[in-house]
Amino acid sequence: MVIEYVGQIIRQVIADMRERRYEEEGIGSSYLFRVDQDTIIDATKCGNLARFINHSCNPNCYAKIITVESQKKIVIYSRQPISINEEITYDYKFPIEETKIPCLCGADSCRGSLN
């Protein structure tokens, strides 16, 4: 394990409201990570360093949802040894949508969009 993704556990309805509020407040990025159909972890204002891990189409880590004492947690695991000063990345696996979010990861295998 590299790091646990920490934040406030919220439901989908609350996540939708917060995302709109963050946009209205001019917060450039929100850090909402879906755990399951109804549960999201919001690390936008009260998360740890895991919220700053960037996406890559050729990542050196992967995110996995595990259950510890009946509570779901998001954990980032390494796929390979990670060198000192090497950026930690994982594939965000955003759902496919009509409006594309450009991917800037620079990997040879880049898909061109996050979704």
Automatic annotation (TrEMBL):
Pfam families: SET. Its main location: nucleus. One of its GO terms (biological process) is methylation. Residues 99-115 form the Post-SET domain. One of its GO terms (cellular component) is Set1C/COMPASS complex. InterPro entries: Post-SET_dom (IPR003616), Set1-like (IPR044570), SET_dom (IPR001214), SET_dom_sf (IPR046341). Residues 1-93 form the SET domain. It is found in: Nucleus. Transmembrane segments: none annotated. The keyword Amino-acid biosynthesis does not apply. One of its GO terms (molecular function) is histone H3K4 methyltransferase activity. Keywords: Chromatin regulator, Methyltransferase, Nucleus, S-adenosyl-L-methionine, Transferase. This is SET domain-containing protein. It comes from Seriola lalandi dorsalis.
